[in-house]
Amino acid sequence: MLYWLTALSDGGDFFNLFRYITFRAGGAFLTALVFGFIFGLPLINVLRRTQGKGQPIRSDGPEGHFVKAGTPTMGGLLIVGALLTSTLLWARLDNPFIWMVLFVTMSFALIGFADDYAKVRKQTSAGVSGKLRLAIGLLVAGLAGYWAAQYHPPELASQLALPIFKDTLINLGILFVPFSIIVIVGAANAVNLTDGLDGLAIMPVMIAAGTFGVISYAVGRTDFTEYLDVHYVPDTGELLIFAAGLIGGGLGFLWYNAPPAAVFMGDTGSLALGGALGAIAVATKHEIVLAIVGGLFVVEALSVIIQVLYFKRTGKRVFLMAPIHHHYEKKGWAEPQIVIRFWIISLILAMIGLATLKVR
């Protein structure tokens, strides 16, 4: 919205700064961060009063989690609120990819909110029907995939770009939308599975958002794409502002989620943030790079899939408990030890993902 202040500029004054994506990204980051600091504690107090016993703790979970009983959930409202406010304030609102990513983020936030609300109200770990959540998520992701394809350049529409191989495109045709669904819904649920320890999910999400902010900015500029030999996708540079708002909102939330957490993100936050990462990957044509950058989320999701399939087939377990961060808890690792080591892994994977921009 503030971009329109450039209409007051004569080309050499303060208002001209609003033309620059990097300046507005900085503004979005600070806006989201301040939003989190201002509204964090009041929101937590409201959630405590309204939720009573807080998020139900699974009876079959690690023993150390029972001390967290009474901690409120739906803290994702703080992140989503900061992200929405900063994006609407600093991004160009005539950009189709901004609205596509916001649509996915807010839709998955609503799905997660409904699930969190049902869990708190019923005081059970079973919320909204999994089939219903999946069905709505598939619909949202399908609309987003179709939306993105309409604004991709004709030579890239329905194409799958491969990292490292600069001239290789795989024409998915009508399968592009189903592929987009897999990316967005898969990312949303993978982040949701990762969100099991205080601070475990939010930092890798911020690292991935920062990485895709850089990717968005790079593929949205012709000079960068020519130098890096990556495909040019017009208008995606504006997604750097969204990513900056996500990082700012994430830091504001982490202030209260650092062990011991004053509030849990809940499905409200994890589904929204995972869906957002998937949507950015689809918009920038870097879906496969998301699997690298978000490799931690992939491993968390795979650990659950492997555990379920192997148990159904043999009656035995591969991991002491899934997702895999609970496996390490059962092995005796302290929660901060798991969290910080997983953060380090996420940062390494992000660097590898960024390297694919130049390794062509």
Automatic annotation (TrEMBL):
Q: For this UniProt record, give its keywords in alphabetical order, as a comma-separated list.
A: Cell cycle, Cell division, Cell membrane, Cell shape, Cell wall biogenesis/degradation, Magnesium, Membrane, Metal-binding, Peptidoglycan synthesis, Transferase, Transmembrane, Transmembrane helix
Q: What class of enzyme is it?
A: transferase
Give TM regions. 20-44, 65-91, 97-118, 130-149, 169-188, 200-219, 239-256, 263-282, 288-311, 338-357
Q: Which Pfam families match?
A: Glycos_transf_4, MraY_sig1
- Catalytically driven reaction(s): UDP-N-acetyl-alpha-D-muramoyl-L-alanyl-gamma-D-glutamyl-meso-2,6-diaminopimeloyl-D-alanyl-D-alanine + di-trans,octa-cis-undecaprenyl phosphate = di-trans,octa-cis-undecaprenyl diphospho-N-acetyl-alpha-D-muramoyl-L-alanyl-D-glutamyl-meso-2,6-diaminopimeloyl-D-alanyl-D-alanine + UMP
List GO terms (cellular component aspect). Answer: plasma membrane
What is one GO biological process annotated to this record?
cell division
Task: Tell where it localizes.
Answer: Cell membrane; Membrane
Q: How does it sit in the membrane?
A: Multi-pass membrane protein
* Cofactors that this protein relies on: Mg(2+)
PANTHER family named in the record: PHOSPHO-N-ACETYLMURAMOYL-PENTAPEPTIDE-TRANSFERASE, PHOSPHO-N-ACETYLMURAMOYL-PENTAPEPTIDE-TRANSFERASE HOMOLOG
Family under the similarity heading: Belongs to the glycosyltransferase 4 family. MraY subfamily.
Q: What does this protein do?
A: Catalyzes the initial step of the lipid cycle reactions in the biosynthesis of the cell wall peptidoglycan: transfers peptidoglycan precursor phospho-MurNAc-pentapeptide from UDP-MurNAc-pentapeptide onto the lipid carrier undecaprenyl phosphate, yielding undecaprenyl-pyrophosphoryl-MurNAc-pentapeptide, known as lipid I.
HAMAP family reported for this sequence: MraY
- UniProt-recorded name of the protein: Phospho-N-acetylmuramoyl-pentapeptide-transferase
Q: Which organism is it from?
A: Flavimaricola marinus
Organism placement in taxonomy: Bacteria, Pseudomonadati, Pseudomonadota, Alphaproteobacteria, Rhodobacterales
